[in-house]
Amino acid sequence: MSTNSLTYTADRADQLARGYQRVVERIRAAEQDTSGARSAQSETVQLVTVTKFFPASDVMALYDAGVRLFGENRDQEAAPKAALVSESVPFHDPARWAFIGQLQTNKAKSVVRYAQQVQSVDRPSLADALAKAYARQVERFETEQAPAPAAYKAGKLECLIQVSLAQGQATAGHASTGARGGADPEQVLALAEHIENYEQLHCAGVMAVAPLGSEPDMVFEKLWNISQILRESFPQATQISAGMSGDLEAAIRWGSTCVRVGSDIMGPRPSA
Ligand SMILES: *Cc1c(COP(=O)(O)O)cnc(C)c1O
C-alpha cells in the first residue's frame, strides 16, 4: 500500500471500524467503574486513535467511518500524513491531530501547522519553541496567506504536561527517564506557569505513559494525585491523558479523560 494514496479496501475499512468500535465499548464499560477516582459526574473519556506506522489511507478509512481525533508521535511521519488527509476532507470538518511523542524544539514549527494539541510538553524550552512557532505561523497566516496554525480557531495551542512516572528516578530531570520522557512530578507546577505565561499556549492538564513493567493502578493513581495538585493552582487544567491498548481500564479508573489507543484499533504494528 502506497503512503501517498488515500485509497483503502472495504476489508481494511471494516477491520478498522470494528477495532474502533471495540475500543469505544471498552471505554464505555470502564467509565462505569467508580472504585478509583471516577464518579457518576466524571466526564466521558475521549479516544485518540494513534495511527503511527500506519498509512494515511487508514486515517482516511477511519475518517470516513466518523473518527476525527488522531494521534502521532513523530513529526517526520505525521506532517505528510496530516497534509494528505487535510487535502481530501472538507475544510469545515477537518481531522484533528494530537501530537503525543518526544519533540525536538526544531520540529515545533512543523507541528503547530497540523496539531491542535501537544500532549508531550516536558520542558520550558519546548514551550518556548511552540509559543514562538505558533505566533510566527499566525503572523504568516495574516500577512502572507500561509495556512493558519491548526489551533487557530481555538485561539491557543493546547498543551498537556507529560509527566514521568518512572520509579526511583534521579532528580536530574528528563534526561534520566529514558526514551519515554516526561517532566519530574515536582516540575509540573513551574512548567504549567511557564506555559500559561504565553498568550499562545494553554496548559490543559497532564499526560503520562506507564513505565514498562510498572503496576498500572499505582502509576495512574499517582498521576491523578499530581493532576489534583495542578488543578489547585490551575483550575482549567482538567485533562488527564492516560491509558493505551493494554492499560486503558486502569487509567480510566484513575480519572483519565483521554486514552490514546493504537494497536487495538489499527492491528499489530507493521515491521519497518
Ligand atoms: C504508540 C503510543 C500509544 C498507543 O499505544 P498502543 O499500545 O498501540 O495502544 C499511546 N501513547 C503514546 C505516547 C504512544 O507513543
UniProtKB/TrEMBL annotation:
Keywords linked to the UniProt accession: Pyridoxal phosphate
Cofactor: pyridoxal 5'-phosphate
Ranges where the Alanine racemase N-terminal domain occurs: 58-270
InterPro entries linked: Ala_racemase_N, PLP-binding_barrel, PyrdxlP_homeostasis
Residues carrying N6-(pyridoxal phosphate)lysine: 52
Molecular-function GO terms, alphabetical: pyridoxal phosphate binding
Highest taxon of the lineage: Bacteria
Coiled-coil residue spans: none
Pfam families: Ala_racemase_N
Family of the protein in this entry: Belongs to the pyridoxal phosphate-binding protein YggS/PROSC family.
Task performed by this protein: Pyridoxal 5'-phosphate (PLP)-binding protein, which is involved in PLP homeostasis.
Protein name stated in the entry: Pyridoxal phosphate homeostasis protein
Organism (species): Rothia aeria
